[in-house]
Structures are given as structure tokens and as C-alpha cells.
Amino acid sequence: MVLRHLLDATDAEVVAVVTQPDRPAGRGQRCQSAPVKVLALEHGLTVLQPETLKTPEVHEALRQLTADLFVVVAYGLLLPQDVLHIPPLGAINVHASLLPAYRGAAPIQRAIQDGAPVTGITIMQMDAGMDTGDILLQRALAIGIHDTAASLHDELAQLGGRLLVEALHRLRHGGLLRLPQDHSRATYAPKLRKEEGLLCWERPALTVHNHIRAFHPWPGTWFFWQDGDRTLRINVHPGTIGDPLPSHTLPGSFLGVHGDAIAIACQDRAYLIEHLTPEGGKPMSGRAFACGYLRSCA
Predict the structure, then answer these.
(1) Which CATH class name applies to 2-185?
(2) What are the CA-CA distances from residue 141 to residues 92, 171, 217 (Å)?
(3) What tens digit of pLDDT does each residue of 152-165 get?
(4) Does the global pTM surpass 0.70?
(5) Distance (Å, rounded) from C-alpha 228 to C-alpha 23?
(6) Do the strands 46-48 and 221-227 form a parallel or antiparallel pair, or are they unpaired?
(7) Which residue ranges does the chain devote to CATH 3.10.25.10?
(8) Which of 88, 124, 130, 248 has its CA 20 to 30 A from that of 296?
(9) What class, spelled out in words, does domain 194-292 have in CATH?
(10) Does 294 score more than 90 pLDDT?
């Protein structure tokens, strides 16, 4: 978490944390505090949770903090221009891509979905646009073939924390240059929609693999399997790409069991799924699913 790095930094003092209000989460829909709020309270920091950043009352509360700089990490909303002008040094953002690539809400997921080999962290001076401000510092990170949105998020959070501390040190002692973005090279990472999780086996296996990894763990990916009169929705965990298939193989067909995985035909290769969850059921191995639902353990 980026806040941990800030709390350990010798060049910065955290005066408060601003985060969104507690929201219902999980199956019980109980209100849960964000991890950043929990950590802030553990360290005795002031925590503000306004519903909006657009009211004069909130602006005054932010001014009362007398912060030199605002640091924004995955806040989820655009900061109004009036807020950006409150601290003398403005606001900087820790963005999980190498801007101007993947501006927007889901840079980690969209990079994996696109099969990008590299992503990274950009420390950016914020302006009124969506991730359009000047670049202060960047660092690249390779995306592994088995990285998921969850694992890559954790790696980038650590990298982002370290790079932010470096940026603050250089800001205090000089040597931090502002590089305008080349807007002609911008690409965008729109917010994920739940309906995007439906898998299409007619695509190449690598495309399917990237799709599953990008949407794991949220919102997840699934396919529908006809079981007699029932249509089952099967939620899929990331698997591995298998062998090439004969050209006449029907995409989406069950190809058998390989170890603990079931093999499903894609456009060009088999896709091996070791873990899946029938809707309303418990997670199970591919072999257990084949034995119980497909009545085929071979």
C-alpha cells in the first residue's frame, strides 16, 4: 500500500487521509472501511470521508489541513479544479500505467486484457483532465504471462510507493522535471463492466487467457454450459494454454481431463482450467467438475 511507504518516508509528513465513505461489501453487504482508512486510524491520522469534493464546506476542510501537496492514489473520482489549487504545490497522482498509455479507471486490467508485455507507474502532476497532467517520474514493470489483475496490482502498489517517495525526495531537493504528455499517443482504460466477463471460446487461447487474468478476481469471467435442461453459469479461474487443435475442432467443446484440469477448445488451442466455480456452488477442481457435472473423469 502506498500509504505505508509515505508513513515510512523521511521527506514527507502525512497530515490526513481523504478516502471515500465506507461502502457495503461482500455477501452480507456490511459496511467496510477501506484498508487505507484502517491504516490511517492505526497511525492516529485524521480521516475525511466526504461524499463529494465539490462543496465549499469540503474545500474549507481541506484548506484547514494546511498541506503543501495532495497525493492521490486510486481515489476513483476526478478532483475539481478548485481542490487542485488548494495546496501550494498542487496535487500529484500515482497512476498504474506508463502514461499516456491507459488513461482512466482500469489501467491494470486493460493492459493485461490487451496482452501488453509492460506496464508501470507514472507520478503525474494533476490538472483538470483525466490523467492528462505532466509526467514527473516513471518506472516500467514487466507483465508476466500468469499475472492477474490482483497480483499485478500488488506489485504496482509496491513500485508506486517506492517511486512516490523518490519523487517527493527529488521535489524537496530539486531534480524533478515536468514532461508534458504526448496526447496523440494516448490510449484509454475504461471502467470494467460485469457483462464483459462472458468468455468467447471462438477467440485464440491467448486472448481468452488474457481476458480471464484481467478480470480476476473482479468481476470474474464465466461461460455457460448446457446440462440437460439446465444452463449452468461456470465461473472460471485463470488456467494455462494447451496444445494446438485440429482445424475442425468446435470452439467451446469439452476435450477431456488433463490432470486436475478440464480442457476446453478455443479457436486455435485447448485451454486448461484447474479451478472453477459453478454458480451457487463451491470452488472445485476441473477434474471434480468433469466427474460431477459432465460425468466424464477421463
Answers:
(1) alpha beta
(2) 20, 23, 21
(3) 999 999 999 999 99
(4) yes
(5) 40
(6) unpaired
(7) 194-292
(8) 248
(9) alpha beta
(10) no
Q: Where in the chain is the domain with CATH 3.40.50.170?
A: 2-185
What is the grid cell recorded at 268? 486455435
Task: Print the SS3 string covering the chain.
Answer: CHHHHHHHCCCCCCCEEECCCCEEECCCCEEECCHHHHHHHHCCCEEECCCCCCCHHHHHHHHHCCCCCEEECCCCCCCCHHHHCCCCCCEEEEECCCCCCCECCCHHHHHHHCCCCEEEEEEEECCCCCCCCCEEEEEEEECCCCCCHHHHHHHHHHHHHHHHHHHHHHHHHCCCCCECCCHHHCCECCCCCHHHHECCCCCCHHHHHHHHHHCCCCCCEEEEEEECCEEEEEEECCCEEEEECCCCCCCCCEEEEECCEEEEECCCEEEEECEEEECCCCCEEHHHHHHHCCCCCC
- Residues 113-143 have pLDDT tens digits of 999 999 999 999 999 899 999 999 999 999 9
Structure confidence by residue, pLDDT tens digits, 214-240: 999 999 999 998 877 888 899 999 999
